[in-house]
């Protein structure tokens, strides 16, 4: 498989600025050249986040004329989405503000402005599609929920099932990034309620209950397990405005507990030092991992601590790793996961560390024997 040439410098500057500074977590699917044996690549596929999914489009520049604005081609599933038509339909004022007017290739922010503009147009296009449905319940939900800041909605049409309307509702008026001390998260972290309503047919019986689930950005999952939050049942005749308050109250408690757990994990890692010495490595932000160096006579080994988000309700998982014994691939021999040592969440932090130390004093002898037997003859 041949490697594609690098992007033209002017085009690369536009793309790099988008990836570095956009508040959206835009992904680049592929980069390629428009002509064979070209010196530079000049086109790429973007996945733009929308309504807890992605909208894909090809951004097509001309490497021979990189200062010219790109064409943007959406995949076939968006055939009836006409962003230029939407711009034109809003009159001259809207056209004059378009990112495609007065394109300046030397301004690296132009592509980012164009992507954000297209996403806004796509959002309005989806709202219009949903608003045209002949479904009283969905019209009611649209009218009551769309004024809520940040909500997104789209019509999902699949060939093998009835149409559905998906809402993505951001939850909690809290800045999760600021709640986690010293966090390095680049994008704003969010928790959403995804709710999918089946579109009712004319003269159908009572509308079916929607499907609901919580969805979070990836970094939030390192803070606490959103998937484990139990959602209340959807009752007959209920609407979203009635359903959301109980969920948000429960989530706020979960977030407060998760932030408190960071402090508990940090104190646990600090309590390891008097017994094991200063950790070789430790996660300084979420305090989910730590590694210490141990010795029993001439036998030296590492102990890797994996500390769960539910600490201290759930105990850390340990893995012992020899620094002297290696398998046939040259990899240090490690123990299976260890979580059957003495533990109580009611112990104070120094006692937790001390009981683990006492356990490892004996367990390291079994581990040394395990390493010797595991060495290939």
TrEMBL record:
<protein>
    <recommendedName>
        <fullName>BRISC and BRCA1-A complex member 2</fullName>
    </recommendedName>
</protein>
<keyword id="KW-0227">DNA damage</keyword>
<comment type="similarity">
    <text>Belongs to the BABAM2 family.</text>
</comment>
<dbReference type="GO" id="GO:0006325">
    <property type="term" value="P:chromatin organization"/>
</dbReference>
<keyword id="KW-0234">DNA repair</keyword>
<dbReference type="GO" id="GO:0005737">
    <property type="term" value="C:cytoplasm"/>
</dbReference>
<keyword id="KW-0539">Nucleus</keyword>
<keyword id="KW-0156">Chromatin regulator</keyword>
<dbReference type="Pfam" id="PF06113">
    <property type="entry name" value="BRE"/>
</dbReference>
<keyword id="KW-0677">Repeat</keyword>
<dbReference type="GO" id="GO:0051301">
    <property type="term" value="P:cell division"/>
</dbReference>
<keyword id="KW-0833">Ubl conjugation pathway</keyword>
<dbReference type="GO" id="GO:0070531">
    <property type="term" value="C:BRCA1-A complex"/>
</dbReference>
<keyword id="KW-0131">Cell cycle</keyword>
<keyword id="KW-0498">Mitosis</keyword>
<keyword id="KW-0963">Cytoplasm</keyword>
<keyword id="KW-0132">Cell division</keyword>
<keyword id="KW-0053">Apoptosis</keyword>
<dbReference type="InterPro" id="IPR010358">
    <property type="entry name" value="BRE"/>
</dbReference>
<dbReference type="GO" id="GO:0070552">
    <property type="term" value="C:BRISC complex"/>
</dbReference>
<dbReference type="GO" id="GO:0006302">
    <property type="term" value="P:double-strand break repair"/>
</dbReference>
